[in-house]
């Protein structure tokens, strides 16, 4: 349980080759649905940043255990701890999303099952997305008493579709995102890890120094400052909490008629 980092290309001890550490897999595991607590977001940010700073690493794969990739923040923690948990979750999400975007090497997201809320922030900041056939993507924020990550959903679908998905809390399938060009490949669930690693190997075969320059160059020409845009959105989450509407919606979440 938690966040872990592994090097899947390593062979038996003593058999390592020069590329054995070129791929780092950062795996999230917070049962039952990968709804991350405050410290989980910070741990994820630290793991991604550490992997990107490792001079041996040329590609990071962001993966998750369990039936879904990510269910966003732990709402129960926010309900139990109140404003301190909300502020912590906002800061933690900001750091985790930024860590993925700013990772010094390309990040491949391997997405299975549900990818909701904070999950959209993660994959929207990744360089490439590989998804299982059962993957679904969405922002149920308006049903959870929150706002945010429209910045990142807008990187996955066209503007008007983003708005419709955001206002309705509906989800889009992996196949639909593949049709929009934001998902690289859709595969059966049991082939997801293999497909993500296959792409990561292709990326990691490039010159490591040049890859890092390429990542910096691509981020530098991005038309939207994702950090500033997401931070702007977060201000409205605080406002919703301050006026009480966030608590009202969260308290109704999961209840009949809520």
Automatic annotation (TrEMBL):
UniProt keyword list: Lipid metabolism, Lyase
Domain of life: Bacteria
Pfam families from the UniProt entry: ECH_1
InterPro entries, per database record: ClpP/crotonase-like_dom_sf, Enoyl-CoA_hydra/iso
SUPFAM superfamilies: ClpP/crotonase
Family, per entry: Belongs to the enoyl-CoA hydratase/isomerase family.
UniProt-recorded name of the protein: Enoyl-CoA hydratase family protein
Organism per entry: Streptomyces gilvifuscus
